[in-house]
Amino acid sequence: MPFPLRTLEPLKLCRLEEAGGDGAERGGPAPGDHTGSAEGGGGRRRGAVPLFGALEQVSSYALVSLLMQLSDLSRCAGDIFGGILSEADSLCHRNARLQRRLGALETLLARLDHRKVKIQLTPSLCLQLHTERKQQDPDLALDS
User: Fold this and answer.
1) Is 96 a member of any domain?
2) Is residue 24 part of a domain?
3) How far apart are the first and last CA of the chain?
4) pLDDT tier at 106 (50, 70, 90 boundaries)?
5) What angle do CA 125, 128, 131 make, to 5 degrees?
6) Looking at residues 122-140, what average pLDDT do you find?
7) How many domains does the chain contain in total?
8) Is 132 a domain residue?
9) Residue from 32, 28, 2, 26 nearest 13 by CA
10) Each residue's pLDDT tens digit, 40-49
11) Cα distances (Å, whole numbers) of residue 10 to 13, 69, 96, 132
């Protein structure tokens, strides 16, 4: 079973999420949160859900969130296609190397002549041939 390399999950487009009470999760203050000051004495209560001030803020926030999701999806797709390209390139190089090796083997086999090559009989080769014949015909007796 393959392990997932990337998991993509859709985000909620029009919901503001607090990140420790510091505003929206994507950094910066939440839309409509103009009460915070540089000293950290913001007027918003901890645990209060930030709300949008107008419908334009909702639509622009949804559009920005959608564009960010599409950007992340496009980046992940680029990474996936880059991985596929590198795997295909590696496969092409291995295939070319294998074709070169097969070509060299083919030329070597074309130069060989079975009538000119003499096989020297060694005792181990004779014993191996004899055991093969004995397995084929069990009534064969040892001549030596």
Assistant:
1) yes
2) yes
3) 60
4) very high
5) 150
6) 79
7) 1
8) no
9) 26
10) 444 555 665 6
11) 9, 7, 42, 69
Distance (Å, whole) CA 87 – CA 81: 10
Residue 6, amino acid = R
The size of the chain, in residues, is: 144
Residue type, 65: S
Q: Is residue 1 part of a domain?
A: no
129, burial (CB in 10 Å: exposed 0-12, middle 13-18, buried 19+): exposed
Contact of 31 with 61, CB cutoff 8 Å: yes
Give the residue with greater pLDDT, 89 vs 10.
89
Tens digit of pLDDT for each residue in 107-116? 998 888 777 7
Sign of CA dihedral 119, 125, 130, 133: negative
Question: pLDDT tens digits, residue range 49-80?
Answer: 667 788 888 888 889 889 999 999 999 999 99
pLDDT at residue 26 in the model: 46
SS (H, E, C) 33-94: CCCCCCCCCCCCCCCCCCCCCCHHHHHHHHHHHHHHHHHHHHHHHHHHHHHHHHHHHHHHHH
